[in-house]
Structure formats: C-alpha cells, structure tokens
Here is the input.
Amino acid sequence: MNLKIAPVNKPILLGPSHSAGCRLIAIAILIIVHTARIEANPGPLVPTTIGPTGGFGVPSPLTMPPERTAVAVHFEAFNQFSESTLDIEPTVHMSPKVVVGIYDYLEVGLEKTFKIHSENEQETIYANIKYRFPFDSMNVAVGAIVPLTPPDWTSAYMVMGWKALWAGFGVNLGGRRFRELTLNNFQSVGVARMGGYTLRRRVVDGSDQFTGEPDAFFGLVGFNHRLGKHLEVVADYNGDRVSAGFRIPFHSWNVDLIYVSQAATDSLFSRETQNYQIGVTGRF
Here is the structure.
C-alpha cells in the first residue's frame, strides 16, 4: 500500500488533505446564501450513504416522521490491490439501508456494505439511531452508528442547525485498535463510519511496529439546498471525506449523483476510490 511512513512515534497521514475541499464547500454555501433563500426547504428526508437520514455522508438534525420508512442503495467503485493476483482489480461497494420513524423525533435504521470482489474486508451490519430534541428555535439531534459485530467502532454524534445548513461533532469509541508487526495483515482492523484514521509507527527491538485507530473526535458540516422542483445541491464533510453533488427528486424517489474524495480507510486497505457514488432512495 502507498503509505508515507512518518518518523518514529509520529502519526501517518492516510489519504489527502481535505482543507481545500472544505474551503470550496464553504465558498459555495456562502454564494448560495447571499444569492438565494436559505429557507428554501430541501426535499423529504432520505438515508445518507452511511445510514441515518441527512445529506450524502453526514446525518442532519431532522428525523424521519413516525410510521414513515425510507430505503436506499448506494454504489461506489474502487481500484484495489489484490494479494492473489498481485495486480490492481476493480471492486464495488454496494450499500443498502433502511430507516424507520418510530415515534415523534426518533428514527432507527440498518445499513450494510457488501464489498464485491474485495478479498480481506469484513461486511459489518450497522444499526443507527437518531433523536431530535423538540426545540423551536433550532433543530438539535444526537445519534449513534453502532456496528453489530466486532471489530468496528461506534460513531456517536450531535448535530444542530436547519433543514438547509447544519454542523456538529462526533466521537468514535469501543472498537478494536490495529496492532500488528507489519502492514500486510488488515483482517482485524476496526474502522468507523465517520472521522479519519491515524496510523502510527514505532520501533520495537529494531523492528517496525504499527498501531492505529479511528480519530477519537471529528467535526461535521452539511448543506442541502433545493434549486428547483427536481434538483437539490448537497455538500457535506464527515471529518474525513468530502461529498458533494446533486439529488434529483421524482415523486417519492430520488437519484443521488455524488462526488467523493479519498477516505483515510481507502489508503489503509490499498484501494483508491473512483471518486463517484450513485444511489437511489425512496420514501413510503
């Protein structure tokens, strides 16, 4: 895998810096805020690529209404190194999910990513829950994305804001840290749905030893603006990855066309994203 080995006991940065992408999102939001009505409501809530309702990669501070259900499936293509062929092979991640409104201000859901043609990654089922506080002045919600099997990490978060613009923070906890003597075996690596990943190098008895875990703390920002009856522009940042693109509503269905940046865990698993996701979402 193409990792830049940092000095001893220094973090290894996985994936590119997203500061430029975040600045572009901020500039785009400011332009739209000053040239259009930020109060223009986005379409009905649908699942994100990671499960809970919201933008593309970040949950929003709103929740699915009671007795309503939303479903979605998203696809992302990668080029990944294969240990069996010693070559770069195409792989696809397919992520179906469902979210249900249980009570006022409470939603729950399930999500699983199937890694097609990938050799060494587990396919964890994630449960998610989100509760919105009944405040009048601003929407505030807390939630968690919880793996149902080890070794992955739970991402707990809080977001606040409005239908079109929101921000928040989260923490990763409870998973299995990576501790191996080499970078060749990643079978037991625990990852998280949000935030980056930090890999560290140490020298023990003259040999390199690597340890790593998801970021303990991360920031979130999301934006969703309806440009017309059948077009929304969506952009967000989940503490690691920038997602931006268009959501095309048609009756109770939507098509998501998304640009995504390289994630830290992509470098960890010797793969490169092809920088796009395609999804279909529906609400009943």
User: Anything to note?
Assistant: The two ends are 43 Å apart (CA to CA). The domain at 18-173+218-283 is CATH 2.40.230 (Outer membrane phospholipase (ompla); Chain C).
